[in-house]
């Protein structure tokens, strides 16, 4: 009985996936059998789930943010319609391994291009230039010139933000590392930490949330240059080339600016102009 049920369920799944393949775009990418595309005309894309403005899974299960719009645009250029995309959460510390394992075809997740990461993955882009900053309570006296050594800072494991604190920004800070920025946000709210530090676009997205309005402010420090790239499995240069073409088109047809305005506008985030492909700001 149990076996029959499983068989019926598998048949249903097979029928569904066949239907999905049949309905799929005829311009589909050439590797529908790889694990990151699920073998059913689907493509798995890594994003963040808890960064409003950049990458967010909403309570109704839908996805929104600048990275989500970039991911959808690129996927379309690769031959995938929105209903063929499976968004997968890729936290900061998990991105290189998710690509190496083939869990996702590419990652659009506030993912800075660095030399250390380039040893493990390939990058298309950059498609956005952000800067590391601090989010503090509205009444905090932390500002430009404040010595952050000795302060309680919160950031995320595996991020450039945490590394920059340890290497250069404030090596003697009391750095707390969590697995996501939203966990740091709770610490900031409760007073357990003095500041949350990461890229300014992410921080602006948090500060603009209804429940935090008027509670936090960005220090406006531009502590680093974060060149966002789209991560791809090491050696998959064909996909990198296709993604770069898609990104160029996204800028030239106005879709990039539209996505910036729609996603960062509500947070009043002053973004840098669209970067040129391959042009890294050190
Ligand atoms: N852009 C930085 C990084 O890739 C910080 C944001 C993040 O953790 O995603 O590490």
Please describe what this structure looks like.
By secondary structure, the chain is α/β, with parallel strands linked by helices. It folds into two domains: 43-130 and 227-267, D-Maltodextrin-Binding Protein, domain 2; 132-218, Periplasmic binding protein-like II (D-Maltodextrin-Binding Protein, domain 2). The chain has helices spanning 2-23, 66-77, 95-101, 115-118, 160-169, 181-190, 200-207, 237-252, 255-264, and strands at 43-47, 50-51, 55-57, 63-64, 85-89, 106-107, 121-130, 132-137, 152-156, 174-178, 195-199, 216-218, 226-233. The strands form three sheets. Strands 5-1-6-13-7 form a five-stranded mixed beta sheet. It has a five-stranded mixed beta sheet with strand order 10-9-11-8-12, with helices on both faces. A hairpin with a 5-residue loop joins strand 3 (55-57) and strand 4. It is globular and about 50 Å long. The termini are far apart. Bound molecules: glutamic acid. Glutamic acid binds at residues 92, 109-112, 156, 159-161, 198-199, 226.
